[in-house]
Design brief:
Blueprint: H1 7-19, E1 30-38, E2 41-48, E3 57-62, E4 77-79, E5 81-82, E6 85-91, E7 104-111, E8 114-123, E9 146-149, H2 157-161, E10 165-171, H3 172-175, E11 180-185, E12 188-193, H4 194-209, E13 213-219, H5 251-267, E14 269-271, E15 274-275, E16 278-281, H6 288-291, H7 299-318, E17 325-330, H8 345-359, E18 365-368, H9 408-413, E19 429-434, H10 445-461, E20 465-470, H11 477-480, H12 497-504
Parallel strand pairs: 9-10, 9-20, 10-13, 13-16, 16-17, 17-18, 18-19, 19-20
Antiparallel strand pairs: 1-2, 2-6, 3-4, 3-7, 5-6, 7-8, 11-12, 14-15
Helix pairs in contact: 5-7, 7-8, 10-12
Length: 528
């Protein structure tokens, strides 16, 4: 019996067909236009034609770690060309060993006994269709952009500061080190460290109780429990980075990562254990040699592999919480690179976007870190001594670095047609890390306070930046030794002027700090 297509999906298919350039039958090509979940089925719609031995089209499902159809014979659906296109339907098999949630699909024809791909590849575009929860942002409706990298012993200060967002980092290694809490996913049982889970439960509930949306930054460090989750290219290189690229090149690594992200999204979906609204996958991934190491590979390969990692995380999260936001993450290096496995942020973004468009556009967002140059130079509105000749910061698309002064370069870049969402909207853009030191050469507590006031006013004036997480709630002794006393509080918990500035920055002009920037009032800079 033929599977029926829902009216909404047929309408969407027609709309896509109208927007797409025609596919040339003379070139014997097929173009997958849509790959959607509808009910318990995956529906694939394609256009074009290709010659085969029997006039039939066969759909194959490839897992993220599979690179080709090869000699496989296990197609999942058969479609016959009609006047309106080629249609396929195959079982989703959600939450079973045969789940297709993470598969990408390709159309083939039979030729000489083999199945030859004749189309592009596409992942499921709407994993949120199977979600049973849809969390509601506490802060988005109010337009509150204020956030901070939080520290749970000081959770009560979140509401005192008036922040709407709290950032916390989750490391896979902490959860795959020992057991105590089992989670069954796609027919397999995964054991997570009970202490780590309970600590995260506490953090989520504490921050939510202060009316803060949580932004969870997910990183991957090496441990006995995560060795199979570390990218194979990063092993045996002699490097010892902070975090590693996630291994989605093997079945074990990909399934383990999908299970972990599903566990988080399922646990913090707005129920009794709290809500996580935003997820950042990796930290400053373009600085791969330190923060997302995948080995010494060209940026194009790195970006494409990161896109696959992101796709797995995205489908896992959105299949549990339909309204969650999922972000990639780059640092302040826009077109600057330190060489090796340290890449330009723009190159990684371009490569990532190209791979996402190639395999099916989804609603990913960008998180970036527009720190001052150098990091210890809190008065970002000036050029640091010795940096003038380097010309690292300007207001062009080719600027080497992004600071609070030229964040519009990034938001303008994302208004290009190839970066828009499927509905034509500008993607969600956030700043998940930004801070200024109160110590070091040229810095003091008033300079730090002025930097926070000025940078936040610039962020508030940019309609495309959704939120900022200032880093951090209090000074971290190890960072202070590096000249980065970025906390709003000292390491002993004493508030700095920056604390009161951030508390009032969306409620008061704070013109008393404008002279530190060289003006008598913020209005002279067109800011409120």
């Amino acid at each position: 019996m033929k599977k029926k297509w829902g009216l909404s999906l047929l309408i969407a298919f027609v709309a896509v067909m109208i927007l797409q350039l025609p596919v040339s039958a003379a070139n014997s090509t097929v173009q997958i236009q849509l790959c959607y979940i509808e009910g318990d089925q995956v529906k694939v719609a394609a256009s074009g034609s290709a010659a085969g031995d029997d006039g039939q089209y066969y759909l194959f499902a490839l897992k993220p770690y599979e690179s080709e159809v090869g000699l496989r014979q296990d197609y999942c659906a058969v479609g016959t060309a009609t006047a309106n296109g080629i249609y396929f339907s195959t079982a989703l098999n959600l939450d079973t060993a045969a789940s297709q949630l993470y598969s990408r699909f390709v159309v083939t024809v039979k030729s000489g006994g083999r199945f030859v791909p004749v189309s592009n590849e596409m992942y499921i575009l709407n994993p949120e269709a199977v979600a049973t929860k849809a969390t509601v942002s506490i802060s988005e409706a109010t337009g509150n952009k204020k956030g901070i990298t939080a520290y749970w012993p000081y959770a009560n200060l979140l509401s005192d500061l008036g922040v709407g967002y709290a950032g916390t980092t989750v490391d896979t290694a902490n959860f795959f080190n020992g057991g105590g809490i089992n989670f069954t996913y796609n027919g397999k049982v995964y054991a997570f460290n009970a202490v780590a889970v309970k600590e995260l439960d506490t953090i989520v509930s504490l921050y939510n109780a202060q009316n803060a949306d949580i932004c969870m930054i997910v990183v991957n460090s090496l441990s006995a429990g995560t060795a199979d989750m570390v990218h194979p290219g990063a092993m045996g290189t002699g490097k010892n980075p902070h975090y590693y690229s996630v291994n989605v090149t093997t079945q074990a690594g990909e399934e383990k990562f999908a299970a972990f992200m599903s566990f988080l999204a399922n646990r913090y979906n707005g129920g009794k254990l709290g809500s996580v609204q935003s997820y950042v996958i990796g930290n400053e991934v373009n600085s791969s040699d330190s923060w997302h190491y995948a080995g010494e590979v060209p940026v194009s390969l790195f970006a494409a592999d990161y896109a696959t990692q992101f796709r797995v995380a995205y489908n896992a999260i959105k299949s549990h919480n339909s309204t969650a936001n999922v972000y990639i993450c780059t640092d302040q290096r826009w077109t600057h690179s330190d060489g090796g496995s340290s890449y330009c942020g723009r190159d990684v973004i371009d490569g990532f976007n190209a791979e996402i468009l190639r395999t099916g556009n989804i609603d990913w967002g960008l998180s970036f870190h527009p720190y001052a140059v150098p990091l210890t130079h809190s008065s970002f509105w000036t050029t640091a001594p010795g940096y003038g000749a380097l010309k690292l910061v300007d207001n062009t698309v080719n600027t080497k670095m992004i600071t609070p002064l030229n964040m519009n370069v990034v938001t303008n870049y994302f208004q290009q047609p190839q970066y828009l969402t499927r509905t034509g909207a500008v993607r969600n853009i956030i700043i998940s890390e930004l801070g200024f030191s109160s110590s070091g050469a040229g810095n003091d507590m008033n300079i730090q306070a002025a930097a926070i006031a000025y940078s936040y006013k610039l962020i508030a004036a940019n309609p495309y930046i959704k939120m900022v997480l200032y880093s951090a709630m209090l000074d971290i002794p190890e960072e202070v030794q590096q000249g980065l006393a970025n906390g709003l509080l000292t390491s002993t918990g004493a508030p700095k002027p920056a604390y009161y500035v951030y508390q009032m920055v969306d409620r008061d002009s704070l013109n008393q700090y404008a002279p530190f920037v060289g003006v008598s009032s913020w209005s002279q800079l067109g800011l409120q």
